[in-house]
């Protein structure tokens, strides 16, 4: 099968030297890409700016902003069997970008933010969709409740929920613990472990779910090459 994996943060520019971003390291997304490659599958890795070495066999697409990631995902999604949206895409971006550096002043400065385009929602509601959509929900409270809402509203097949309020797991950590929520209502937990170990388990789950979905829709894997 062919995987599309997004990873890392996006950077939404304020001016030529400043931007709005987040703490995502990209480690989970890169681990999933590597696990899929190790299992013998093709991978398109769409990555924000991170300090990680990408797996050599992956087709790497480097992006910076949420708009760049949106466009890159839409170029490749229909060619893939499994779309894993692991990137921490900014929910908001500055309404306008200053062409020159904003100078420091003594008074307060207000920054107007507008919503970014929703990549996960666009995939979940893709017309005549023939690929599995996996989303991630990084939450600090009511983790499973918020993840279940996201699963439903974005029309995903699977949501991976994790509590990023813990200093021992989540963003910028080498370990994680997740709860997997499926569209049919089932849930499965993976206890705290190295992200590479969790990634291998997730890839197995994604492959099984994709096979079931394709069997129901009578889709041949060869159609996506």
Q: How large is the count of helical segments?
A: 5
The chain-level structural class is alpha/beta
CATH topology: Rossmann fold
What is the string of helix and strand elements?
EEEHEEHEEEHEHEEEH
Per CATH, the architecture is 3-Layer(aba) Sandwich
* CATH class membership: Alpha Beta
Number of strands: 12
Helix content: 25-40%
Give me the Rg, rounded: 18 Å
Contiguous uncertain segments of 5+ residues: none
- The quaternary state of the protein chains shown equals single chain
Major beta sheet summary: 8 strands, mixed
In spatial order, strands of the major sheet run 5-4-1-6-9-10-11-12
Strand content: 25-35%
Number of domains: 1
What does this structure look like?
By secondary structure, this protein is an alpha/beta fold. It is built from 5 helices and 12 strands. It has a single domain (2-99, 110-224), classed as 3-Layer(aba) Sandwich (Rossmann fold). An 8-stranded mixed beta sheet has the order 5-4-1-6-9-10-11-12, with helices on both faces. A two-stranded antiparallel ribbon has the order 2-3. The protein has a two-stranded antiparallel ribbon with strand order 7-8. The protein is globular and about 60 Å long. It starts with a strand and ends in an 8-residue tail after the last helix.
């Amino acid at each position: 099968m062919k995987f599309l994996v997004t990873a890392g943060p996006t950077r939404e520019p304020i001016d030529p030297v400043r931007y709005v971003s987040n703490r995502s390291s990209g480690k989970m997304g890169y681990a999933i890409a590597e696990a899929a490659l190790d299992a013998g599958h093709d991978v398109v890795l769409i990555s924000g700016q991170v300090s990680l070495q990408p797996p050599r066999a992956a087709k790497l697409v480097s992006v910076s902003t949420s708009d760049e990631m949106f466009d890159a995902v839409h170029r490749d999604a229909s060619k893939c069997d499994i779309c894993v949206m692991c990137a921490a895409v900014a929910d908001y971006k500055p309404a306008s970008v200053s062409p020159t550096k904003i100078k420091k002043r003594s008074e307060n400065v207000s920054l107007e933010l507008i919503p970014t385009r929703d990549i996960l929602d666009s995939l979940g509601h893709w017309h005549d969709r023939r690929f599995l959509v996996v989303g991630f929900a990084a939450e600090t409270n009511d983790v499973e409740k918020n993840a279940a809402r996201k699963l439903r509203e974005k029309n995903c097949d699977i949501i991976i929920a994790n509590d990023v309020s813990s200093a021992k797991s989540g963003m910028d950590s080498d370990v994680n613990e997740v709860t997997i929520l499926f569209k049919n209502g089932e849930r499965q937990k993976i206890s705290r472990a190295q992200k590479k170990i969790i990634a291998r388990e997730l890839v197995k789950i994604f492959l099984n779910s994709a096979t079931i979905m394709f069997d129901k829709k009578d889709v041949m894997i060869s159609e996506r090459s």
